[in-house]
Amino acid sequence: MDYQFAERVNKLRSSAIREILQVTEMPDVISLAGGLPAEELFPIAEIQAAVNQVLEQGEAAASLQYGPTEGYLPLRRQIAGIMQERGVSCSSEEILITSGSQQSLDLLGRVFLNHGDTVLVENPTYLGALQAFEVFEPRFKAVPTDDEGMVPEALERAIIEYSPKLVYLVPTFQNPTGRSMNRERRWAVAEILRRYQVVLVEDDPYSALRFEGEELPCIKSIENDRVIYLSTFSKTVVPGFRVGWMVGDPRVIGSMAKCKQGADLHTNSLVQHILARYLQETDSPAHVARIKAEYKRRKDAMLTALAREFPPEVTWSLPEGGMFLWVQLPEGVDTGLLLAEAIAEKVAFVPGKAFFVGEGGENTMRLNYSNSSPELINEGIRRLARLIKPHLDVA
Amino acid sequence: MDYQFAERVNKLRSSAIREILQVTEMPDVISLAGGLPAEELFPIAEIQAAVNQVLEQGEAAASLQYGPTEGYLPLRRQIAGIMQERGVSCSSEEILITSGSQQSLDLLGRVFLNHGDTVLVENPTYLGALQAFEVFEPRFKAVPTDDEGMVPEALERAIIEYSPKLVYLVPTFQNPTGRSMNRERRWAVAEILRRYQVVLVEDDPYSALRFEGEELPCIKSIENDRVIYLSTFSKTVVPGFRVGWMVGDPRVIGSMAKCKQGADLHTNSLVQHILARYLQETDSPAHVARIKAEYKRRKDAMLTALAREFPPEVTWSLPEGGMFLWVQLPEGVDTGLLLAEAIAEKVAFVPGKAFFVGEGGENTMRLNYSNSSPELINEGIRRLARLIKPHLDVA
Fold first, then answer.
1. Which CATH fold topology does A44-281 show?
2. CB-based contact B105:B133 (threshold 8 Å)
3. Among B102, B112, B258, beta carbon nearest to A15
4. Tens digit of pLDDT at every position of chain B (395 positions)
5. Which chain B residues are closer than 8 Å to A135 by Cβ?
6. Do B265 and A242 touch (CB under 8 A)?
7. According to the CATH classification, is domain A7-42+286-394 in 3.30.160.100?
8. Which residues of A touch B63 (CB under 8 A)?
9. Which residue of A301, B51, B282, B373 is surrounded by the most CB atoms within 10 Å?
10. How far apart are the first and last CA of chain B?
11. Beta carbons of B389 and B381 less than 8 angstroms apart
């Protein structure tokens, strides 16, 4: 039988990365490709204690029953506390719990994007956001971005030219580059949002994972009204729970909840109860500190290996937190071709092109350091360096 | 600040039911309105044992890490076993695990529905399906339906007239009516699907909850190629896990998985591991038998109370399973007005109109019997009867 799929399905971004990740999950490949947290650091015992408390006490039935679309109220209150620490005062009516940040992005697309609406993005940008939004068939326009993040003057010009419905940014330890927008630009962006009445989606999964350098304020803390803020427990607790959150104007959150009801009714009740218990009963900041110390060790191992092994024509970002690092090779080197050779040598990365809107990025790659030991990172970089050198002679 | 939402948001079905449910969740209201399973029957101890096994053994890290979009393979294999018992042979490539049946419906909308495509539905039909699909702006056309389910001749005429993209049916213990499509019609529908090459979505959350009468085959077991089958663990284990599944052609499942990646990456890993353990370690059929025995007791209590209390002009369905029963009052009675009086008397139901496409249903109501004790059901029906009588004198 022939199936007639909707037009949007045929337009979906290729699942190239998904296929790469499947290849690289073979056990003997050193994968610097994925975006997985270090599972050796998962707080398994603390989670087990929290589950047993939930299931042994009065909340067991509620933790297994249908629940409110907006999310479990005690967890929303705890998230309000987390937001306070990030400089944002909000009530639980301004918080929607989602089935991970990916769902937050999907709901944003549903609520805001008509066919043909413009979304302004960094270039490169987070691929998952492009995948979530493109179901609603917007136009993506890339705004020039450098080592200090999106360029405010370029953002202003793009707003004037395209009248975007949304601006999408990952200002801190961006995926894929690991770069952060500097302090001055955050204020400049907030001012531009106010001036042009534009809505910014500030996607912030990584800022809690700063292991060096000076704290930067989230843009939501500078300009509350025009920013919808997303974050998640995936990097600070565990990703398998699929619990994220969104903070915005109650009218926005109300529309999101209405759409979420049609999308999945509500987020898993049990893990919301587990998270609320976990945050209450354990020293969660101490756990995050352990994650940061280990990621810094792995990032330093990668930087050391890159400096030692990679040719001088190659440059890379210097992340102060998060999970990724961005490598730029000389023009003419095609990291897509390089990947095929790398897989043959049992090492993997993600070619940078997938993160770009439009042309560009053929000579870039994303490296992940959170999910490999320093020893494996060392060996992986050594193998990559060996493969890169012949490409440089040709390029 | 003014927010410009997408057009689809303004067209979303009113959240009337959600608001009703919020009112009726006040502790002293006898709610026959919701669609909640009996939480007294939740297998809490067995779930706790399963969680502890998952977290104490080799699979702990995997159960907390990112996982495959298609779902946890051991659970997909167990679902293949469940499908075998339902008369459907399928491999794990034909199974997608979803974040509850509501997400299955959302993904079906994404993959199949262009703006303006027609979906044929029963009348009344499951409200959650209308909510999931309407984001993609199809036309809904109602096909005449009686006590034995959708009328095959009417379905054939509607297919010829509207060339629908999908037909959506809940053939067994339908929500909202509790009615089932009879055996002959299932074969007739399968034949029509073959003749006109139409795709049927068979939504089957309830068939495992048959407490009397003869088993009916699912339509997927009669016509495999043209049926996408949905089911869930919400009614047989617990709804708070938000785990459902979809069975279809591998091409359909592949497109669904691609869309699911953009929607929420994958379903909660921990509960998939818990479910796989639970199904392996516990006598899950014995647990379902306990649920069925209790729901039959509650259904019988409701039927007895209805026969004793309700005036002879009122009729109702006689469900052989599931969670709902459908009441038809004389024409001219408006159950929307009745609800306001009922809430004042601390009893609640869902007015039937919300389940209809287009006009009709003002004189109907959905009653739920799964979530109240026989004593409360008795008292609730007594209060409703008292409120209904004056409406009949007027009508």
1. Aspartate Aminotransferase; domain 2 (3.40.640)
2. yes
3. B258
4. 788 899 888 877 666 667 677 766 677 899 999 899 999 999 999 999 999 999 998 899 999 999 999 999 999 999 999 999 999 999 999 999 999 999 999 999 999 999 999 999 999 999 999 999 999 999 999 999 999 999 999 999 999 999 999 999 999 999 999 999 999 999 999 999 999 999 999 999 999 999 999 999 999 999 999 999 999 999 999 999 999 999 999 999 999 999 999 999 999 999 999 999 999 999 999 999 999 999 999 999 999 999 999 999 999 999 999 999 999 999 999 999 999 999 999 999 999 999 999 999 999 999 999 999 999 999 999 999 999 999 887 65
5. 110, 259, 262
6. yes
7. no
8. 240
9. B51
10. 49
11. no
- Across the interface, whether the CB atoms of A55 and B44 are under 8 A apart is answered yes
DSSP string for A65-123: S---TT--HHHHHHHHHHHHHTT----GGGEEEESSHHHHHHHHHHHH--TT-EEEEES
Closest CA to A216 of A207, A225, A226, A227: A207
Question: Cβ–Cβ contacts within 10 Å for residue B308, how many?
Answer: 11
A–B interface: beta-carbon pairs under 8 A:
239
Q: Rounded distance, CA A302 to CA A181, Å?
A: 22
Q: Give the DSSP H/E element, type plus range, for residue B393.
A: helix B374-394
Distance from C-alpha of B135 to C-alpha of B115, rounded to nearest angstrom: 9
Selection from B125, B140, B39 nearest residue B366 by Cα: B125
DSSP tag of B321: B
Domain boundaries, chain B: 7-42+286-394, 44-281
Chain B closest-CA separation from residue A336 CA (Å)? 22
Residues of chain A with Cβ-Cβ distance to B234 below 8 Å are: 66
Inter-chain residue contact A65 with B239, CB threshold 8 Å: yes
Residues from chain A contacting residue B258 (CB–CB below 8 Å): 9, 12, 15
Q: Which ipTM did the prediction report?
A: 0.96
Looking only at the bridges linking them, the beta strands covering B227-232 and B244-247 are antiparallel
pTM for this prediction? 0.96
Those residues with Cβ within 8 angstroms of residue B332's Cβ, 6 or more apart along the chain or in another chain: B363, B394, B395
Answer whether A239 sits within 8 Å of B64, measured CB to CB: yes
